[in-house]
């Protein structure tokens, strides 16, 4: 097997985030469930935009955020997602390429506009997401570059892709190519409501080996196994999955593998400003470390550092160099192995 040219390929929804602060009573008035993600149509997205306060626009999307984190650590990365040939699509394309990621998917000409997510951030830093999928819903197998996937150490997918049948087909195509080239495949469960919609498919992929590395938070993994007991869910995950990382907020994360279950502490954050992207950046640190041959505990520690950085400011992507931050905290970041 040849050495990979890329560390991580992230496939997911290319979404421009619209971030605004909101009080809890505003969420109640809008019939929103705090801390969750819901899919909305363009009309509802525009309505919410019209009633929120001052907002910040930032390129986001779960896998896109993870790719941004890998790039900030110095990783070689690729993003696969669909935007429209409109202003938001041009903004997203510029942003993902400007961080050093490869992004070659042709934009959608005509039809649906670029996806956007209205994210409401309450004073405790929790985010409530309202996502209009638009063009990103039309990602398909034809957007998968087999040569690039085969040349990537880890191909990473977000669970939100399962809301679009064509994107699901793109996932299976890429996963087959990755495994055929001897590479790893990873999935993040994304959201408990996403798990509720596709529990059977997610469990099947974990159990049959389609997924080599699974990411989840405590709520998602309990939803996956339909239990109120976190320890029961972890034990079930250990039996089913080759490798998993489960985040538990301020308590850190649990790394689940055939060697056992290990808890790794979180990074201390003086003030939580916005939890948008926390899990995405944890995955970035973890995947970067694995792609460079670091051990699992170090991977979880680097994930915690990246996640801690992103929750200390508004926005879903790093505001400072994660590579510099990692070195300042004693991490040794290995050079990439090139073919």
Report what the structure shows.
The chain is α/β, with parallel strands linked by helices and 339 residues long. The chain has one domain (6-12, 62-112, 138-329): Ribokinase (UDP-N-acetylmuramoyl-L-alanine:D-glutamate ligase), CATH 3.40.1190.20. Helix content is 38%, strand content 21%. Strand 9, helix 7 and strand 10 form a beta-alpha-beta unit. Helix 7 (192-207) packs across helix 8 (218-224) and helix 10 (278-291) packs antiparallel against helix 11. The protein is globular, with a radius of gyration of 18 Å.
How would you briefly describe this protein structure?
The protein has 339 residues and is of the alpha/beta class.
- The overall average pLDDT, rounded, is 93
CATH topology: UDP-N-acetylmuramoyl-L-alanine:D-glutamate ligase
**Largest sheet data:** 8 strands, mixed
Q: Output the radius of gyration.
A: 18 Å
Give the ordered list of helices and strands.
EEHEHEHEHEEHEHEHEHHEEEHHH
Class by alpha and beta content: alpha/beta
CATH A-level architecture: 3-Layer(aba) Sandwich
How do the strands line up in the largest sheet?
Answer: 5-1-8-9-10-11-12-13
Name the shape in a single word. globular
Low-confidence stretches: none
Binned, the helix content reads 25-40%
Summed up, the domain count is: 1
- CATH homologous group name: Ribokinase
Count the E strands. Answer: 13
- In whole angstroms, the N-to-C terminal distance is 10 Å
> With helices defined by DSSP (H or I, 4 residues minimum), what is the helix count?
12
* Proportion of beta-strand residues: 15-25%
Query: What is the class in the CATH system?
Result: Alpha Beta
